[in-house]
Fold each of these.
Amino acid sequence: MSHTLFDLTGKTALVTGASHGLGMAMAKGLASAGATIVFNDLDSERVKQALEDYKASGIEAHGYVFDVTDEEAVKLQVATIESEVAPIDILINNAGIIKRVPMLDMAVSDFRQVIDIDLVGPFIMGRAVAASMVRRGKGGKIINMCSMMSELGRNSVSAYAAAKGGLKMLTRNMATEWAKYGIQANGIGPGYFATSQTAPIRVGGHPFNEFIIHRTPAGRWGNPDELQGAAIFLASAASDFVNGHVLYVDGGILATIGKPSNEE
Ligand code: NAP
Ligand code: GCO
């Protein structure tokens, strides 16, 4: 198998929300395959710190400050990136939030905010980048960060599950509408990974930590770097005939009904 299938040399990747966490890990993976890295965050100080982190890893990244839900800002910043850096060949819609509140207690405004960032944001970003890909006529890759909650419900994460379930179907519609332009739109569905987003339910003896270790056949939380292979695959020529697919990287969670608490 030719290794050039996974070569991203000459490609420019925009990873949203990649100032830390899974986004930064995937961006570093794409950089290791030769891609130029562009990322955004909401906060200029976090962008500045992230640029130093990337540099410490030998990566000359390009950082921008904008909100993925702000359509005018997205259009402006995508045009700025394509002028200052290069046309965007790969988009990873990684930016996202979660709010863990039982539905009966959840403010509608909080529900809407999660949907706005986790579902409308990828729509806004996808449209802005795909429009440019179509104009250039050279195709492209769009990768949407889905979740176990694209397939399963869980107490207290209704808005997040609705958004991530919707994002799975938005991914399929992007594939449907944009395949004719040479664009492949796919999803990555991580299981439970050790980042700041999961820290509240993972550290300090939280019971959910043991639950996940027991519920995951691999018997552990994922390491963010373990998403790099999936990101490189879906960003590269190796996936040119893969479209509308969600690639789950979950240590086996979705493969199993689970096991009794007294079973190893
Ligand atoms: P994280 O540590 O919370 O990072 C999310 C990033 O998105 C942060 O940099 C955040 O910026 C940024 N962001 C939030 N709202 C934004 C907006 N409106 N515009 C621009 N940037 C915004 O999360 P993570 O654990 O790395 O997860 C990354 C993605 O994977 C998310 O979509 C998450 O839902 C998904 N995911 C995570 C897991 C997991 O186990 N960790 C599993 C499955 C899926 P600030 O830092 O400035 O807030
Ligand atoms: C939660 C977690 C999950 C993970 C991830 C699982 O509260 O259940 O935060 O939602 O972030 O989405 O795939």
Note: The longest helix spans residues 108-136.
Amino acid sequence: MCGIVGYIGKREAAPLLLNGLRRLEYRGYDSAGIAVLNGALSVVKQKGSVGDLENALQESGERLSGATIGIAHTRWATHGDPSDRNAHPHLNNAGDIALIHNGIIENHAALRLELSSHGYTFNSATDTEVLVHLIDRMWKDEPSLNLEGAVRRALRHVEGAYGLCVISSREPGTLVVARKGSPLVLGLGDGEYFVASDAAPIVEHTRKVVYLGDGEMAVVTAEGYTVKTVENIETEKLITELDFELGEIEKGGFEHFMLKEIFEQPDVMHDVMRGRVRLEEGRVRLGGIEDYLDRLKQARRIVICACGTSWHAGLIGEYLIEEFARIPVEVDYASEFRYRNPIVGTDDVVIVISQSGETADTLAALRAAKEKGALVMGICNVVGSTIARETLCGMYTHAGPEVGVASTKAFTAQVIVLYMLALALSKGRTISHDEIALNLRELTRVPEKAARILELDSQIKSIAEIFKDAKNFLYLGRGYNFPVALEGALKLKEISYIHAEGYPAAEMKHGPIALIDEDMPVIFIATRDSTYTKILSNIEEVRSRKGRVIAIANDGDQEISSLAEHVIYIPQATGPIMPLLTVIPLQLLAYHIATFRGCNVDRPRNLAKSVTVE
Ligand code: F6R
């Protein structure tokens, strides 16, 4: 959460920084600001979007021109409301140090008290502002320090998480960055350097990046950079080549990133399986876990930890791994796992799933599992992300950058990865070669079936128009479609702000049935699998209470058309494959309902793409 971008080089900093902010806006969008150094510091910051900031800059543009070093920030508020004064960058009282920050300074209250007692005055309600005054204080206490030294010393007093970037007119040619918990990437250009929370603002300038590790600091000038730990120990850093194109983080003719990403799914599904599904050999080859496969197969138990949509993918993973590989699986919210002293040992495998690879709770769960001696495996989308780097082994989802805040293509990619994993864990143990081959054939047919579902977009849009003013929605599914019901409800609530609940259909009569009346749309995922007849009974129960039924059913199912008010027909597939298909109409339905309601689907209120705070 919060987007950080910094630049130092030969070019005009302000337009580069603004462009960078636009690419990072999915990380936070309640206020934005920029500071450049041109002799003195010039700062423009305000509540609102990056677009609003640009408008403000048109008035003050003169002040910012000519500077070749600067920092900029787009905020997701934690401490202090979204407002002009709480927007970053924050300045020290003398106005000669500017700082942007992503994360939470946990001991900010104590630091604030102490700094106040030394005469510092605060202009914001943020935890961040204490940092800039602290740096100032360290520098004043020891004037022989440089900016790097002052930051380093200040960080010794700080508890919590930070990704930060500091400039000062006292040392105009230096940008100092530091990271603990919140991600930072350094982009290495030709005589210029970029710093950002992720690679999105960097890729159009350079493909060469260095990922800062936790507890590391970089000092960047136009001539070069050094990376040391906060304790001042030199560290060797690998230069990594970015593996995505600029076009992948642009809308490509779609109205929203979310829609583009929903429509990308057939291609993404191909990409996830490419080189891994060996149809001719009837097996999967999973390079990232190959060396650990035997240990994974011998796991006493697998625990999957994740948050949000990734947690829903994890639930499907549980069904898949237990069905095929017959290894007991538990799925835990990462935030619960990390704090509940779980029973995990050396013969357990913990799989963490994260699109961003930066989610604070998932990262903490990973570290807790490692500490307890479990083999920790990651399933991540963002290459080089912290979770990807800290897990012993893992698999990338190869879904490409996901910019829309609501996760769509990352989810289907995660499910395919889990499917392939389940088959790899089954090999030679629980299911026959022929069964594996059969499942792989089914998997390779999914992209084409997904493409057929996307052709239903206009039908789904017209259903969305009918229900756009509903106050509540219920999503029901059984078996493999139960996690999809949860995911459908999450998609709707996060982007349309309609209250929605997902339930296993059989649970309906244990409570939620009380909600059903003529104003309650109920979405049934009623595909033809072993629970089909049961779900028909559930539909009858809703109908007899006048609930309005929308069904996702398989092609050719006549029976359901007499029961449901609307039916979205999708291609037939086996039960385990079904979530990959049934989720797509629910993504589209949420998208269209949200756009009919005038919501900003790519940047829903209160949310941010990468949840790097607890
Ligand atoms: C929902 C959504 C979130 C994320 C969750 C975990 O659409 O995007 O629920 O799934 O914040 O994020 P990652 O997968 O990046 O760890």
Note: The chain is about 35% helix and 20% strand.
